[in-house]
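protien #1 (seq + structre)
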Amino acid sequence: MKLLVTLEPDETGMLVAECPAIPGCVSQGRTEAEAMANIREAIDGALAARAAHGMPLTIEVREIEVPA
């Protein structure tokens, strides 16, 4: 399964990683590699929890274009 992940630095310098297709699935790391490893772990846990509760694994994520 391929999922989009966003990376954004926070005010402390940590990289915040989020998976928009899984509500609440957020992690962080000091480096991009650490943030990516942590979000993979968070995604695995979130998918398992959603499956255990009979929830859809992901929600639909769409792309939209707006003027800049």
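ok now protien #2
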Amino acid sequence: MDIIICGGGDIGGAAAEALAKRGNNVTVIDTDESRLTFLDEHLDIAKLRGVASSAETLRAAGAATADAVIASTGIDEVNLVCTTVAASLGADRTLARVDHSLYLGNESMDYATLFSVDRLFSPDRATARAMAARLSNPAALVVSRVARGTVEVQDFEIDGEGSVSGNRLRDTKMPPGSRVVAIRRDDNWRLPTADTRFKTGDRVTVVVDSSRFDELDGLFTAHRASRRNVVIFGGSPAAVWLCRALRERAGNIRLFEVDQERSEALADKLDWVTVMNADLTAGSVFEELACNKVDAFLALGDDDENMLTCALAKRHGIPMILTMTHRTTLTPLLEDLGVTASFNPCTSALEDIMHFISDADFERVSSLGGSNLELVRVRIGKKSPLAEKPLRQVPPDSGLVIAVVEDDSENGHVPKPDDILYAGRHVLVACETGREKQLRKMFDAE
């Protein structure tokens, strides 16, 4: 494929490396000659110095015949202009990075359609969703995102205080938007059936719509006595997305931002959050926090400030510490500082980019616990016997669980029995490993 990347920074550079390694013809456009030289010396790519939003530059890069144009600069408006111009020149598909909430989830305006962009992606939103998922279930053995972060894969170890213990799956009222897709007992993983009976000590893997996670509370493990008190450092766009993701998941959210004007703007925008205009890097502020129980500290400033505030959080005994970092090389140091988990926006962005480019009929997403079960993403073909049929018509002895159904934008949800399996759309299927041939035939994904 011929792919043009507008912006050779952390995200654009990582995408160029990953796509070039897959054998694609990659051209990177940037105004910074030193950045382009570095990429050219280390990767098998073409480079072009220029303003990526310029029609002349995009035409010179070959946008008219490009299979995809990816705009990944740090400025939303530049990315939207890049992809709009590229589409008008004839580029087959376009993908634009945007992080401001104005352009995402706006019910009154579809900015993707307005700017002729096939797909918008947000590293900040993806990172915030991943952090929220981790915070929601601190004891989870596995937490991952699928369907562009709209669905979570969560693991629970059943304790005697959860309501499912001793019940069969058919007698368990799973909340809407959730489904058990795997169960481990005595180190053996298997797909659940209606007659599967849950026992204390079982480990279960559940897919759940991100907005419905709280409805699982008390089902597999003891009911949470109270909602968590969370402190967030930094008023970045990622912090805004995090506050939105935590709106129904956390009790008391306090956000600290040192810039007064930004603090006031955030207070107006996030009316369910207590916004504090204070410098958390000052030890005295942490002394005051220590007087109140804080369940989790989440750092979303720049890397150096995040490291400092995480160290202070650890020193003052905050039990769960999550941070965003733009440098993967810092991960070992963050672990030494006592950080529970770190999240890299570049990694989240790369997942979205590679997903957009591949658009495969069949791909393995991840293993499910042991090596004998996996999660597979497959497109429903027109000749599939399941096409245009409701989920309830999938034979119970098919040896698979349809876990997620995606829409045309690749956002997903856990389906209900009456949901239609539309041809052309992807589904995520939990199944035994080694069933590619059977799955391709069942879904007409040849």
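The two ends are 21 Å apart (CA to CA).
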